[in-house]
């Protein structure tokens, strides 16, 4: 590791270190707690079928885990809305309510879920291409920008063209204050852990549906924030995953 890399690691470790002296005397300011999730109330909504309404084939968990790979050779074939709903539920479906928290299919430190889910809808039957935000409480897509955003995502992701050929691209933004309200600087460690759980759920669900999935973490931050329409400060791009049918070899 380079000297600069070692110094950066040391600073990150020191800032996020958890010790008893840092824990003493801490309390939570409940009046200052950030909103647990965001919505776009004026956006056109695309309701997603609920889990009980989904006619998805059963899958063997162990086979799916063994078969999962990052797949990039997307065919561009449209997927049914049911598949997009199943993928959305797998990574962020609400499974229970615990006080003010909406517990979901993936774990999160303190059930704070310090991120938002966006979907670039590119080839989904019955849905015009758009950039949408996932309303987790209402389980619906909120259309925040019209048109096919695949090329813009690919350009911001260092020219990874398969993002433009995917049927959909899930994009997650971090909302740091949502976790820092409780965990302070330690929240820096939890962001990546939380989204790792989420993306793995998506990858496993895609494999179960016979779809490809490829996570992406390499992108130009300012450019990706601009594509997603976030400010890059209170909310910033963190992780992507492309999904869709893959090209089958002859």
Give the count of structural domains: 1
Order of helices and strands: HHEHHEEEEEHHEHHEHE
Annotation field: number of helices:
9
How large, in whole angstroms, is the Cα Rg? Answer: 19 Å
Q: Largest sheet, if any?
A: 7 strands, antiparallel
User: What is the number of E strands?
Assistant: 9
For the terminal residues, how far apart are their CA atoms? Answer: 44 Å
Q: Level of helix content?
A: 25-40%
Give the uncertain stretches in residue-range form.
none
Strand content: 15-25%
- Average pLDDT across residues? 93
The CATH class: Alpha Beta
CATH homologous superfamily designation: NADH Oxidase
Strand ordering within the main sheet:
1-6-5-4-7-9-8
Can you walk through the features of this model?
- The protein has helices at residues 3-16, 20-23, 61-67, 81-92, 150-156, 162-165, 176-183, 187-208, 221-228; strands at 44-47, 94-98, 101-104, 115-121, 130-135, 140-146, 168-174, 212-216, 236-244.
- The protein is α+β, with helices and mostly antiparallel strands and 250 residues long.
- The protein has a single domain (66-244), classed as NADH Oxidase, CATH 3.40.109.
- A hairpin with a 4-residue loop joins strand 5 (130-135) and strand 6 (140-146).
- It starts with a helix and ends in a 6-residue tail after the last strand.
- 40% of the residues are buried.
- The mean pLDDT is 93.
Entry keywords:
NADH Oxidase, 7-stranded antiparallel beta sheet, alpha+beta, about 250 residues, two-stranded antiparallel ribbon, about 20% strand, 9 helices
């Amino acid at each position: 590791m380079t000297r600069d890399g070692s110094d950066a690691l040391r600073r990150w470790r020191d800032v996020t270190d958890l010790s008893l002296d840092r824990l003493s005397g801490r309390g939570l300011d409940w009046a200052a707690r950030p909103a647990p999730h965001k919505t776009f109330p004026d956006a056109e909504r695309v309701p997603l079928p609920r889990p009980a309404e989904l006619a998805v084939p059963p899958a063997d968990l162990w086979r799916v885990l063994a078969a999962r790979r990052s797949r990039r050779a997307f065919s561009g074939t449209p997927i049914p809305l049911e598949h997009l709903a199943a993928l959305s539920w797998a990574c962020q479906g609400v499974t229970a309510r615990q006080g003010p928290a909406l517990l979901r299919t993936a774990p999160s430190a303190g059930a704070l879920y310090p991120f938002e889910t966006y979907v670039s809808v590119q080839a989904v039957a019955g849905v015009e291409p758009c950039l949408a935000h996932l309303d987790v409480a209402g389980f619906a897509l909120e259309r925040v920008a019209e048109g096919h955003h695949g090329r813009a995502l690919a350009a911001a992701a260092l020219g990874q063209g398969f993002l433009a050929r995917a049927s959909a691209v899930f994009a997650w933004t971090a909302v740091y204050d949502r976790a820092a309200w409780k965990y302070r600087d330690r929240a820096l460690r939890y962001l990546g852990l939380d989204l790792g759980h989420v993306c793995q759920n998506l990858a496993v669900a895609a494999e179960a549906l016979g779809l490809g999935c490829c996570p992406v973490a390499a992108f130009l931050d300012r450019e990706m924030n601009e594509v997603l329409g976030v400010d890059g400060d209170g909310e910033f791009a963190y992780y992507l995953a492309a999904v869709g049918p893959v090209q089958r070899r002859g």
